[in-house]
Amino acid sequence: MSIGAAAVIISMFAISWSTSPAVFIFFYSFGFGIATLGYIPAIQCNWKHFPNKKGTVSGIILCGFALGSFVFSFLCRIIVNPHDELPLIKVTHGEVVDHYYGSAVYFNLFIQCAKTVPGPRLHLDGNAGRVHFHPQAT
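-> structure tokens emitted (138 positions)
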């Protein structure tokens, strides 16, 4: 699993710097191709336990992976942008217009990421909108 995650991260970084369609296609295919190797052990293990139901087991496992990503996308939106704010900032680069969210959405993302890291904690004071640093891990 960690090899697949690393491949996706490396390929996404390479894709962001690519300037040609060939490089984009190569890294997209390579990174996400390796990431799908995580499906194979789960399917093979269940094929051993249900040798007469290989098709059903494969379908259930692949539906589980797909439903997990479907639910996770909504969960991420609820955590990061709970008030459904629209992008407020528009930056124009020639004919391309990029839309960016305000600081409240980025602040939510920062706080949620900070909660996953072990160690000292940041706490938001709801009344004043300030962040307090607590050195003890909770």
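The two ends are 28 Å apart (CA to CA).
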